[in-house]
Amino acid sequence: MRMSLPCLALALAGCATTPDATKPPPPVPLTLDLADPVVEAEIAGVPLRLRVDFQQKDVIELNPAAAARLAVKWEDGFDVAVGRVVLQGRQARAPVLIGGVAIESVVAEHGRDCCAGVDGAISPASLPYDPVRLVRQSEPEGRSASYPATISAETGLTLAQPLGRETLRVRLALDGETPIATASAGAVLAKAQGGRFVGPVFRVTPAFGVSRQARTMVFARPPLVAGFPLERVAVRFADFSGGRTLPLPGEGDGEGIEVRGRAPPPQRDWPSVSLGRQQLDRCREIAFHRAQSVITLDCRFGS
User: Fold this and answer.
1) CB neighbours of 159 closer than 8 A, spacing ≥ 6?
2) Contacts with 293 (C-beta within 8 Å, 6 or more apart), sequence order
3) Residue ranges of region Disordered (predicted)?
4) What SS3 class is residue 299?
5) What are phi and psi of 277, to 5 degrees?
6) What is the pLDDT of residues 7-23, one digit of tens each?
7) d(CA 257, CA 141)
8) Residue 85, phi then psi, degrees to nearest 5
9) Contact at 8 Å (CB) between 275 and 226?
10) What is the CATH architecture assignment of 28-135?
């Protein structure tokens, strides 16, 4: 039997002359309303509404009431640390149907509602679409900027923001109000941009309805974070410092700080800043491109 030269060259690897009919088609794009980015899904046969959340980990997080409707095999899951408040969770593997596309995913719940007005949250990286575009048609076109994105089982989808020799991990909190930084990020920003604390202590609610203490930091040189100049940021001064040192408050500036006994050991070093609606409401489009692992922002970035 004679073999063609191309097939002879590929004989050891196999020579295919027709496309693989079993190969799934490439994912198609998905466009959602940036003001209300919700997808309809069936999880274990139960219809649920999921908000597309750029902060979500690589699992589908459900409110407890929605999780209770699923006939799945639950087991002990991962814990979630909201600062120093740790929520224990449970998880299960479940079939998921979104837009007629069947996938299998891990669903989780942590005893508290994660999401208001919907049943749960899903990362754009977990959707069977690429790219996932959130669009606000009423917003005028701005400037487009793209950032490398990373999805972590621990911290969700973040983009990288270099700042001197450091790198901030930036999260897009579509349901947040103002920018919030961890203690580690506050220390990085203070050192690089001349940050100092002003005003009293107040509370912020980063996730699951858990509130944490924070103070406002202002800057001699406002930093650019994902293209947005930040005049001020709320710093969760007790959370995720990694042993970094924050600037001391000025005399008389300690109003409202709770000091109870010996200071606890520092948590891991996580220099993260979450941008909220104060910045993201100026965006016409926020898109995640899974194949390139890139987040693209089309926004009016000026202050």
Assistant:
1) 147, 148, 149, 150, 169, 170, 172, 226, 295
2) 148, 149, 150
3) 248-273
4) strand
5) -65, -25
6) 434 344 444 444 555 66
7) 43
8) -90, 120
9) yes
10) Beta Barrel (2.40)
**Amino acid at site 255:** E
pLDDT digits (tens, 9 = 90+) for 150-191: 988 778 899 999 998 999 999 999 999 999 999 999 999 999
Using CA atoms, how far apart are residues 182 and 235, in angstroms rounded to an integer?
6
Q: Which residues in the chain are classed under CATH 2.40.70.10?
A: 28-135
Return the CATH architecture of domain 143-250+267-299.
Beta Barrel (2.40)
What is the token pair recorded at 244?
């970094």
How far apart, in Å, are the Cα atoms of 131 and each of 126, 295, 302? Answer: 11, 10, 26
DSSP 223: P
Give the torsion through C-alpha atoms of 159, 163, 165, 169, to 10 deg: -30
Q: What are 180's two structure tokens?
A: 């919030």
Strands (E), 74-126: 75-76, 80-82, 85-87, 90-98, 101-109, 120-122
pLDDT digits (tens, 9 = 90+) for 197-240: 999 999 999 999 999 999 999 999 999 999 999 999 999 999 99
C-alpha 251 chain-centroid distance: 37
CB under 8 Å to 206, separation ≥6 — which residues?
82, 83, 176, 180, 212, 236, 274
Comparing C-alpha atoms, which of 172, 171, 165, 193 is closest to residue 270?
171
120, 134, 101, 100: which is closest to 48 by C-alpha? 120
Structure tokens at 170: 């930036």
| Closest to 139 in 3D by CA, of 301, 31, 299, 303 | 299
Non-local (6+) Cβ contacts of 270 within 8 A are 155, 169, 182, 184, 185, 240, 242
Q: How many CB atoms lie within 10 A of CB 89?
A: 19
| Residue-level length of the chain | 303
CA distance 119 to 121: 7
